[in-house]
Amino acid sequence: MFSKHMNHTVTEPFLVRALLIVLSIVALFLIIGMPIIVVFTEAFSKGYHAYIADILDPYAISAIKLTLLVVAIAVPFNLIFGVVASWAITKFEFAGKHFLITLIDLPFSVSPVISGLIYVILFGAHSIFSDWLSEHNLQIVFAVPGIVLATIFVTFPFVAREIIPLMQEQGTEEEEAAILLGASGLQTFWRVTLPNISWALVYGVLLCTARAMGEYGAVSVVSGHIKGETMTIPLHVEVLYNEYNFTAAFAVASILSLMALLTLIVKWIVEKHFHSSNQST
Is-contact 258 191, C-beta < 8 A? Predict the structure, then answer.
């Protein structure tokens, strides 16, 4: 059935192609599909009413609210930074350009736990900023600002890394033509650059959102694990699991899974529209 859609340049025998496809599907089911099924099975193991009670627990509600708050701050920040950095890197030549690209990629190579420790060292009780923070009654570590900073650091590259290659491939000809025709820099961005990178931008935002919702390592270091105050969904799930409250842990984890699935569905829709628009041009 799937042979109708095969690329004619593919030379592998039918059995080889079928075996590779079946192995891919089986591997995806074992690695991704089965854990998701287990999460929802365990979440509803004590019935629907117990599931709702676990979800409506005040600490669970607090964790969900904090997670959404962190996402609402971190993702727009990275969206603005990603567009600005990508514009600077692809449209201008300046000293330190390659160093800036390396810095953008840094969160990919640094463990999230290390990034959390960096903020503890910078803003903790014995840091160089501790006296100034105390004088101004500001708390970064073991508070919401530290969680936001750690999440921003971890999700830093996702938007920029999606649109930089696309903007490099598109070059500067269209922007130069718009400027020659009298458009201002802002008009050029809104009417020429932004439409060309819109789908990649949405794709990067979705990846950034998914990672921000599920971030654990960096947030765990800077949060202090204060129930009802600095616990995001992943941290709340860990605490419930360590307290042997497995059903509640899986119930809250199912909320995170639903958020991730929703993000993947939107990502799939974006990819479908992106490929359709590419084929039509």
Answer: no
Note the pLDDT tens digit of each residue in 11-45: 778 888 889 999 999 998 998 889 889 999 999 99
Cβ atoms of 237 and 225 within 8 Å: the answer is: no
- Enter the pTM of the model: 0.83
The residue among 236, 200, 223, 248 whose CA lies nearest residue 139 is 223
Digit-coded pLDDT (tens) for 209-266: 989 998 898 999 998 888 888 999 999 999 999 999 999 999 999 998 888 888 888 8
Q: How far is the C-alpha of 84 from the C-alpha of 55, rounded, in Å?
A: 39
Alpha carbon distance 259, 234 (integer Å): 12
Angstrom CA distances, 71 to 51, 109, 117, 143, 212, stand at: 25, 22, 21, 15, 6
pLDDT in tens, 141-178: 899 999 999 999 999 889 988 888 888 888 778 888 88
| CA 67 to chain CA centroid, nearest Å | 12
DSSP codes, 16-62? HHHHHHHHHHHHHIIIIIHHHHHHHHHHTTT-HHHHHHHHT-HHHHH
- Retrieve residue 90's tokens: 């692809």
Q: What angle in degrees, to the nearest 10, is found between the helix axes of 97-109 and 157-170?
A: 140
Sequence-separated (6 or more) residues with CB below 8 Å from residue 231 = 59, 62, 63, 66, 223, 225, 239
Beta-carbon-side half-sphere exposure of residue 58 (alpha carbons within 13 Å): 3
Pull the structure tokens for residue 201. Answer: 């931008």
With residues binned 3-state (H G I as helix, E B as strand, rest as coil), the percentages for the chain, rounded to 5, are: 80, 0, 20
